[in-house]
Write a structure and sequence with these properties.
The chain is an alpha/beta fold. 55% of the residues lie in helices and 6% in strands.
Length: 547
Amino acid sequence: MWSGSATPSLTTWTKIPLEAGTVAHNLPISLTGFIGREGERLQIRQMLQQTRLVTLTGLGGVGKTRLAQQVAWESLPYFRDGVYFVPLARVESAAAVWPALARVLLNSLCEEPNLQTLVFDYLRDKEMLLVLDNFEQLLPAASWLIEILQQAPQVRLLVTSRERLHLSAESLFEVEGLCVLPAEFTEFMECDAVQLFLHSARRVCPNYLISAQDRPYVARLCQHVAGLPLALELAATWLRVWSCREIALQIEQDLGFLVSDWQDLPERQRSIRTVFEHSWTLLTESEQRWFSQLSVFRGSFTRQAAAEVIGATAQLLTSLIDKTLLRWSPALERYELHDLLKQYAAEKLAQTPSVQEQTQGCHCEYFLRLLHDQGQALNGPEQQSALKTLAEEIENICEAWQWASEHLKLDWIESCLADLASFFMLQGRSVEGRSLLTAALKELKTARPDSKVVYKLLAQQSALLSLATEADTAQAQLHECLAFFQAEADWAEAAFCLSELGDIAVYQTDYQVGYACFEQALALAQQTQSQELEASLLRRLGNVHSY
């Protein structure tokens, strides 16, 4: 037991001998067992030794309640007067907190005006752990927790909430999704997320085993929901009628797929959308607007990007972090949005098409401008820094590029086309770059078949084709583009086509043709004062001389 001061040290926590009797409690008995989180459970128990108010925060469905209950069970031997679980999900006002406590602690349904005093009197000399579950809608009552701690110096509080309590005395523990490993890892089957999925699957398919064919789709599913326990349990129920592949693909397309008809589960937890809807209702109107707009980002994003694309302030982003709807990575200095939350936010944004269109346009303009600005450094001394920046933002850049292609933003595409191709070429990711350019070509050829940007796209796409297997295709496309640019008197683009044709000829050991192409290209580069291309062509001519 803890003894002595009101804030006992780590060394004062000792177990009650079993012969001393059982400890009083009202903890719910789990019917499905508890999977994993050994490290988190130990850390929370240690925190409870060192501080009297621990708040478990996290996204709805992440398992805060189950984790708190498990820690409470494991903490029973350390609290002489018991461990009590106080459910607050249905308590809608701060004033109703005291009756909820009285029902649990005093077994009383009374609504006396001095109920608060009765609770204080009862707790004053108790060595007890109180687990207050689902406190997020009762934040105005958070200051009363401090009064409990002051009036009852040997009581400790373990609180679960989707939002931090904003109390100086609280110690925060953010509950995250269960551990997920890639399918190719040897330890894949032992990771917590897979174990929970398998455990849940066997409740509906007792003989279910994760086959070699299912393994990559189980990994894909676990990774998409980021180990969110409720999502894994809901997904597993579909194994009665769907394959793992179908389940994984459907979740990525439809958030409403994660739903169950379990009668013993609270209605607010029978679907992921309902869980998220509760968090949505706790946001202010401006927070709702900004949160929905964050869905346009792909992967992670910076504070500057959020400010320029949607006008988000640092205070707003911090508020969403406090409400566990957004994560901040200090190591990367970037924000992250859970994939399922992003799906939900995108649904909300789509309900206001004008705002959606404007936000996506701002996102596109910001990242294509970033691509162009950084692209100017790809052939200079700042190349490595530029490559690093572009690699960090490539998911958002690709999203912006696709949106610009679909919405025929020809000026934006033309301004950064060469920069995008150069990045993928320098990164050795030509296949990925070629795919993006090919998709853009398909859109633009249909809508603007004779525009100059179509031929610029075709020329850059040709430069990304494999010389080993697609040289003939590249050569034919480059000749087509060269003829167009010569007719348009666009000598800079004509020089680019000639330089690429020279590379193909050299690869095919036709050095004479290659040299001729480089010479013609050099003359045009000098004529148009394309200094970077001129320098590149001089190097190429020098290399041909060596053969």
